Amino acid sequence: MLFTPWTILILAAFGLTMWAQFRVKGTFSKYSEVPVSSGMTGAEAARHLLDSNGLSHIPVEHIPGTLTDHYDPMSKTVRLSDPVYFSDSISAVSVACHEVGHAIQHKVDYPMLVARHRIFPLVNLTSGVAPFLLLGGLFLKISGLFLLGIIAFSVAVLFQVITLPVEFNASSRARDLMIKMGYIRNSEEREVKAVLGAAALTYVAAALMSVLQLLEYIWLFKRDSDD
Ligand SMILES: [Zn+2]
Predict the structure, then answer these.
(1) What pTM did the predictor assign?
(2) Where would one find coiled-coil regions in this protein (predicted)?
(3) Burial level of 39, CB count in 10 A (0-12/13-18/19+)?
(4) What are the pLDDT digits (tens) for 41-74?
(5) What total number of domains does the chain contain?
(6) 107 alpha carbon to ligand 1 midpoint, in Å?
(7) CA of 167 to the centre of ligand 1 (A)
(8) Which of 33, 61, 99, 216 is catalytic?
């Protein structure tokens, strides 16, 4: 395989990504054992929070799996997994309110979410071809092809970077609303922060790794065009 001055950094970022994923599972299961003082389940909190924000038309559905929870902007649906939908734990209510946070962002046209939705179709297209363009350009030594690969890959990187403020904003909305609506007490905010913070770190690590990869490709392009 190719070894460049960037390899160590990229491997370190990969390690951070793995660690962040391991940690999010650990934190989630730790606070799955801690019941929330209001006794609400994830599904109840999501329903109540949607209704109080004028989003009664958005359904809360149950989906299989763990940590598969998401807000679907196409069908305008909040989907919660087994350990979130039925559970009254700190983890469950935090994740449920985070997903409602995305639905509220959608309603108020939060600019970063709008940008994310705009580039999403492009990301689908470019992420499929980027590896072929990059590998083809590198091994066939066609710099124009490699440059096209860099451009295609940078769309995916941009998408991951834009995801960061979207995720942080959904979590901070969730935290504030959970206290305001009385789903948690002030004393439970630290636990909620731990659950949502662990999830945010997985996005940060993944984005960091993509940015480093992009920098490596640009470095390779410059090195080869200087030859
Ligand atoms: Zn999210």
Answers:
(1) 0.91
(2) none
(3) exposed
(4) 999 999 999 999 999 999 999 999 988 999 999 9
(5) 1
(6) 15
(7) 5
(8) 99
Q: How far is the CA of 136 from the centre of ligand 1 (A)?
A: 35
CA–CA separation, 72 vs 80, rounded Å? 11
The answer to whether residue 201 is domain-embedded is: yes
Residue 119's domain comprises: 6-226
Whether 56 maps to a domain, the answer reads: yes
94 CA to centre of ligand 1 in angstroms = 11
Q: How far is the CA of 211 from the centre of ligand 1 (A)?
A: 20
Which helix (H) or strand (E) segment holds residue 71: the answer is: strand 70-72
C-beta of residue 163 within 8 angstroms of C-beta of residue 113: no
Residue 104, Cβ density class (10 Å: 0-12 exposed, 13-18 middle, ≥19 buried): buried
Complete edge-to-edge strand list for the sheet that includes strand 60-63: 60-63, 77-81, 70-72
Question: Is 61 annotated in the active site?
Answer: no
**Selection from 123, 32, 110, 45 nearest residue 78 by Cα:** 45
**Tokens at 14, concatenated:** 């990969």
Note the pLDDT tens digit of each residue in 186-212: 899 999 999 999 999 999 999 999 999
Give the 3-state secondary structure of residue 69.
coil
In a domain, 133, yes or no: yes
Whether 168 is covered by a domain: the verdict is: yes
Instruction: Enumerate residues with CB within 5 Å of ligand 1 (an ion).
Output: 167, 170
Q: What is the DSSP letter of 35?
A: B
